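Posting for a labmate who doesn't have an account.
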Amino acid sequence: MATGTGVPRLMVVGAHAGDGEVMAGSVVAQHLADDGTAAFLHLTPGERGHPFLSGAQYAIQKREEARAAGSVLGADVRILDYRDGELVASQEVKLLVAQMILDEQPDIVITHDAGSFHRDHAACHEIVSEAIFYAGLADLWPDRPPHIVKAVYYAENWEDKRSFSPDLYIDTSRGHDTWLEALHCYELFRGELATFPYVRYYEALAVVRGAESGTRYAKAFSVPPEARRTVVSGLAGEIPLKVTTGASIIARTQDA
């Protein structure tokens, strides 16, 4: 991962090549434009489902597409060799991802939400959660220092909606166009393989989340329950946990 200038280091972990980009590509584009650093880790190429190519052939194509998308965004890309549809939250893969967390040293990790009907996405959530824990255990890494991830955000994905509830909105207006350019590196997202309108769905979702947060485009994320705790010494200072209502969004927009 390239060095930055004090901006938090970001790592996006997806079950398949393409998942991380649709979930957080605009965040990554904007983060890098702000002199941050970012890396994608794809646990599988996502090589199943092509109507004409074998899994091995499509895996080669997906790896090329992932690197092309990373180049557009300016992010590093790593792709593991686990098989699409067969990802298991084993101790082996948890420790491997923990090692990659030690390599990348991210301050923030973005991955799938837990409530997914896709088994690979659910496995990825468990893998990343455990890997973050393992990366911080000093006695597991006698030859290198452990690493503490400061924040983990769970991204919004059409397949991961069972329990998703937005806690954090990130204004992605400045990264939106670069994100769309990166998505078009994938044949899947160009609409040439599937009937599901990926780009139209996620672009519309960015508009909806933007409207909810008073911005042009936004991405929404959930956080672990323990991250929702806010501790204050009293209520004499700035009001904590302000309510974001439609009226407050309209007022803020008018004041801008």
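Reply:
Got it, the structure tokens are right above this. The CA atoms of residues 1 and 103 lie 9 Å apart.
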